[in-house]
Amino acid sequence: MKKRDLTKGSITKNLLFMSVPTMMGFFAQTLYDVVDMMWIGRISFEAVAGVTIFVTIFWVVEVLNEIIGSSSISLISQSYGEGDKEKTKKIIEQTITFKALVAIIASIFLYLFIKPLALFFDSNPLVVKSVISYGYIRIYFVPIMFSSFTVNTALRCIGDAKKPLYLMLVSSIMNVILDPIFIFKSLHIKFLFIDFTLKGFGMGVFGAALATVISITFAFLIGMYILLGGKTHIKIEFKKLFRLDKEIDFKLITIGLPNGADSLTRNLSSFVVLKLIAIYGSVAIAAAGIGMRILGLLFMPLIGLMMGGGTIVGQNIGNNQIDRAEKTAFAAAKLGLLFSLFASSIAFLFSKQIMMIFTNDMSIILIGIPMLKILVISTIFIAVLFGIATLFSGSGYNFPFLVSSVVGRWIVAIPFALITVYFLHLSINWLWFSFVLGDIAESVTIYIFYKKGKWKEKRVV
Asked: Which residues of 86-109 are buried (b: 16+ CB within 10 A; e: fewer)?
């Protein structure tokens, strides 16, 4: 199988080669999340609020996935960049196994605390019921979900960016098809020349969760077949998935600790912010949930650039080409900035029309219009942040992520939000500005760490 040498040739072409398939895959997956929220929005605003609360709770345990996942990016890409395929294979095997074990811990935590946390955010019984209905089945499939992330990461880190795209497309398409079938008993669909009534199972918000776990599991099984069957540059062994390697596992849990701490501080701040949003009622939570899905769609190309760029940076650092790694990061920042300027302009100009796609509840729409116009400002700063951050994810120097999230979330965003809500009693629009200020502070912090240059000396293999 022909592979691309990311340590040679055009930096921009390599970046696009690695990032575009990743962008498209994540875009398709996030587009599903958007479509999912569109269907859920047709159930009730309580259902939207319930799913929003569950996702916020899930982010806390997703920290474990972040720790191991960020460690694996630098370990796999650097070992592959060195040309050591045996070591690369062993790291991939260990990442799949170790992450699945850690995911069991995450599932137990969610099972024990999902209902108390749901009540913490909203006492509305219909909202709490939606959290439980959507969340319980998702809990049982967390190990599969975490491991599916590893499969995609492993393929990207060895320069095979197309197969993760196909896997994510398969998962997303299945989700889009299964969602309305599982959610509604009957749904009339009229679009252009299409006009028919769809008969389904009427499972409501539980059906949305069921569609998700089926789709993720199916894509994961295909991904494992690719890795086990040698359908890519590296072939792993099934029997070695049942062994643990203390040295590799220690690196998996320690290299990404700053990322995990970063993710934890960020997600805990989301807890606080969601609680502040809840002060304005269940409708405000529903509006925030829709807004987060829309912003997620805008962020996906930036994440694609960051992940593709991180792989290239890792391989070039493994090959001792520091200048080339740095040029890759700035190319990612420039491309991300161009996209963000375009996408944020569209979201700003058509915020009302975008909100109306998800709901016809005017109380949600009226909150959502200014929310979108304010939050899209952040994408410009995040584009630059994600581009430069490829230097840290590729090198394994993850400490800047922790510092930037503490500064952005806890020193800037949260204090600003608390002051506007509790002391000044301002409208919810001021709460949205806390996100923007936090993202600006994070971007400045990341740039300061870049200028210090410690990432140039970092090695993990």
From this structure: ebbbbbbbbbbbbbbebbeebbeb
Round to whole Å and give the CA distance between 85 and 92: 10
* CA–CA distance, 379 with 70 (Å, rounded to integer): 22
What φ, ψ does residue 427 adopt, rounded to 5°?
Answer: -70, 165
**d(C-alpha 314, C-alpha 75), whole Å:** 8
- Domain residue limits at 114: 11-457
Cα–Cα distance for residue pair 393/398, rounded to 1 Å: 6
Tokens of 343: 């996408």
Which helix H or strand E contains 190, and what residues bound it?
A: strand 186-191
User: Nearest 10 degrees: CA dihedral of 381, 402, 92, 240?
Assistant: -160
SS3 state at 198: strand
139 exposure class (CB count in 10 Å sphere: 0-12, 13-18, 19+): buried
For residue 329, give Cα distances in angstroms to 117, 305, 383, 386. Answer: 39, 9, 11, 9
- The three-state secondary structure class of 186 is strand
Tokens 């890792």 correspond to: 314
Tokens matching residue 182 = 């599982």
Total structural domains within the chain: 1
Radius of gyration of the chain (CA): 21
Cβ atoms 105, 64 nearer than 8 A: yes
Does any domain span residue 365? yes
Q: Do the domain assignments include residue 311?
A: yes
Does a structural domain hold residue 50? yes
Distance of CA 243 to the CA centre of its chain: 29
pLDDT tens for the chain, residues 1 to 461: 445 667 787 888 888 888 887 778 777 777 777 888 888 988 888 999 999 999 999 988 888 898 898 889 889 988 888 888 899 999 999 999 999 999 999 999 999 999 999 999 998 999 999 999 999 999 999 999 999 999 988 998 888 878 888 898 898 889 988 999 999 988 776 666 677 777 889 999 999 999 999 999 999 999 999 999 988 889 999 999 988 899 999 999 988 887 788 788 888 888 899 999 999 999 999 999 999 888 888 887 888 888 788 888 888 887 788 888 889 888 889 998 998 899 899 999 999 999 998 888 899 999 999 999 999 998 888 888 888 888 887 887 878 888 998 999 999 999 999 999 989 999 999 999 999 999 999 999 999 999 898 888 776 65
Answer whether 148's CB lies under 8 Å from 214's CB: no
- Stated pTM of the model: 0.79
Answer yes or no: is 407 within a domain. yes
